[in-house]
Amino acid sequence: MTAAVVGVDIGGTKTAAALVGPGGEVLERREVSTPARSGPEAVLDAAAALAADLLGAAGAGPVGVGTAGTVDPATGSIRYATDSLPGWTGTPVADALAARLGREVRVTNDVNAAALGECWAGAGRDRAHVLLAAVGTGLGGAIVRNGRVEAGARGAAGEVGHLPAPGADRLRCGCDRYGHLEAIASGTGLAAAYAIATGTRVTGRAVADRAAAGDEVARQVVDRAGRVLGAALAGLVALLDPAAVLVAGGAAGALLPAASAAYAAELPAGWADVPLLPAALGADAVVVGAARLALGTSE
Predict the structure, then answer these.
(1) In terms of Cα–Cα distance, which of 257, 254, 250, 255 is closest to 209?
(2) Please, are residues 64 and 291 in contact by the beta-carbon 8 Å criterion?
(3) Are residues 108 and 48 in the same domain?
(4) Is residue 240 part of a domain?
(5) In whole angstroms, what is the distance from residue 25 CA to residue 117 CA?
(6) Does residue 198 sit in the same domain as residue 219?
(7) 165 near 184, Cβ under 8 Å?
(8) pLDDT in tens, 160-177
(9) Alpha carbon distances (Å) from 96 to 76, 246, 254
(10) What's the average model confidence in pLDDT over 197-213?
(11) Would you say residue 256 has pLDDT above 90?
């Protein structure tokens, strides 16, 4: 790689673009609120404007994009998206942005992009096979092997959030069913469990803050979520055989202590050397991973 490349992060709340250097370092960054309620065309226009502002300092190659939603790996279109981006399902992101920018655009899901970023320049650097769990409002996952995302048949491999989970029977998952891992080990899950226990509705972040401040019920909610997450990840290690498991996202810090203990207790002996690590790139993970996607595997 001899020139910088542009990576874009399209989320339900914010859209960002970055000029990323040869070692995965962010050289310049732009960010705006995503005009989600104005529809897909407005979202695409905002993303294209950010990318175009950085392309003059980039090489002549493709632009990479990490976006909310399930992405068809063959076409770069959105197979499915939640209401955080109304009308996003069916949007031909790769073709629409290529038309706006005048160059090839490569697209993947935002959690996949975050995993690529961590494997290139973060906590997964120099590890050939990584499982990443992203614990935010919901719970996403991604698998990277030898610098490539394992997409699966529908572009949705690694989605750990829909595994059955003990203790989640009364908690609704983002897919609208009950009993899934996302329903307990996510910001939404923390908020729902705390509301059931106390009758008080606060955000998942507030539950984590209350736990840290000594609220006993909040601490129990957070610890239970962490234990369930850690045990699930230990089981996935035996199934997927990664070199490392990374935990990213806004709720990761709150859940990691209990998750790490449960992970260590449940990890089969044959995989005792597989670490559970906090992700390192924070808010830059998706743009860095999108830039890596743009480079392909030959760089």
Answers:
(1) 254
(2) yes
(3) yes
(4) yes
(5) 10
(6) yes
(7) yes
(8) 999 999 999 999 998 889
(9) 10, 32, 38
(10) 97
(11) yes
Stretch 2-28: mean pLDDT: 94
Beta-ladder partners of 245:
131, 276
143 within 8 A of 236, measured Cβ to Cβ: no
Number of structural domains found in the chain: 2
In a domain, 121, yes or no: no
User: Are residue 86 and residue 162 in the same domain, yes or no?
Assistant: no
Residue 220 forms part of a structural domain: yes
Angle at 41 between CA 40 and CA 45, to 5 degrees: 115
**pLDDT range class, residue 82, cuts 50, 70, 90:** confident
Residue pair 17/29 in contact (Cβ under 8 Å)? The answer is: yes
Do 130 and 218 reside in the same domain of the chain?
Answer: yes
Provide the pLDDT for residue 154: 81
Q: Average of pLDDT values for 132-161?
A: 92
Q: CATH code at 88? A: 3.30.420.40
pLDDT at 174: 86
pLDDT reading at 1 higher than 50: no
Alpha carbon separation from 10 to 171, 243, 250, 259 (Å, rounded): 28, 29, 17, 29
Q: What is the pLDDT of residue 299?
A: 39
Does residue 212 share a domain with residue 178? yes
Does 297 have pLDDT greater than 60? no
First to last CA, the chain: 6
Mapped onto helix, strand or coil, the DSSP state of residue 32 is strand
Is 60 or 179 the better-scoring residue by pLDDT?
A: 179
* Residue-number span of the structural domain to which 59 is assigned: 5-116+283-295
- The overall longest dimension of the chain from CA atoms, in Å, is 57
Q: How far apart are CA 30 and CA 35, in angstroms?
A: 15
Residue closest to 229 by CA, chosen among 260, 268, 269, 190: 260
Say if residue 142 is in the same domain as residue 46: no
Same domain, 169 and 234: yes
Shared domain check, 170 and 260: yes
